[in-house]
Design brief:
77% helix, mainly alpha
């Protein structure tokens, strides 16, 4: 047997041994994979700490009566009372053409209200006041999970068709969404990442439906 053939046989044997080792059950992860896992764990811990730190910062604004009352009131408006007010504003602005906007907003609200509880239960993230005794819950909660924010998700979905049909109200819509986000954090019920994710989900899911409903 030639030297070249011996070398080829040796390489094949080494490759087979390597394949068996990689497929062996209980094999410890490679150093590169272990470093990646540790990096992800450290990054996740730092992001969670920053998220909770932001909750503590915003909750300070609710220490005074004005801030506390405002946060609770805005949060309760987000439970449903806000939407008839928005419907009246739509009718006042659009008159007889308000039907399509209200239809789109109603479809979005119904869809998102069905979806966000499922996502919350799947993620299962505890609310901030459950994780830190320094964070107080200023009102009752509808469920025990925080990610994503159902208030931000539903409100964003309702605002999308309004802004599409009435572009000049974009600054007011953004201000309302930010105000709702502040209230949900200040009451100790959500992290900033919950608000951002809720708004993102609300926009992504409601935009196509809004375009379709407004074009019908």
């Amino acid at each position: 047997m030639t030297e070249k053939a011996l070398t080829a046989d040796r390489l094949d044997a080494d490759s087979a041994d390597g394949d068996r080792a990689s497929e062996a059950p209980g094999q410890p992860p490679s150093p590169q994979r272990g470093r990646g896992g540790r990096l992800w764990a450290v990054s996740k811990q730092r992001l969670s700490s920053a998220d909770l730190g932001a909750v503590r910062f915003f909750s300070r604004s609710a220490r005074w009566r004005v801030g506390r009352t405002s946060a609770v009131l805005i949060s309760r408006l987000g439970n449903g009372w806000l939407y008839p007010i928005l419907a009246l504003m739509i009718v006042e602005h659009f008159g007889s053409k308000a039907g399509r906007v209200i239809l789109a907003a109603g479809l979005n609200a119904g869809l998102l209200h069905c979806l966000y509880p499922l996502i919350k239960r799947m993620i299962g993230r505890p609310r901030p006041f459950r994780m830190d005794a320094r964070v107080l819950s200023l009102s009752g909660v509808l469920d025990e999970h925080s990610f994503p924010s159902g208030h931000a998700m539903t409100l964003c979905g309702v605002l999308v068709p309004i802004v599409l049909a009435w572009p000049d109200c974009l600054p007011a819509a953004l201000a309302l969404l930010l105000l709702m986000g502040w209230a949900r954090i200040a009451t100790g019920h959500h992290y900033p990442s919950d608000i951002c994710a809720g708004a993102a989900f609300g926009f992504i899911l409601s935009y196509p439906l809004s375009v379709w409903a407004l074009a019908v």
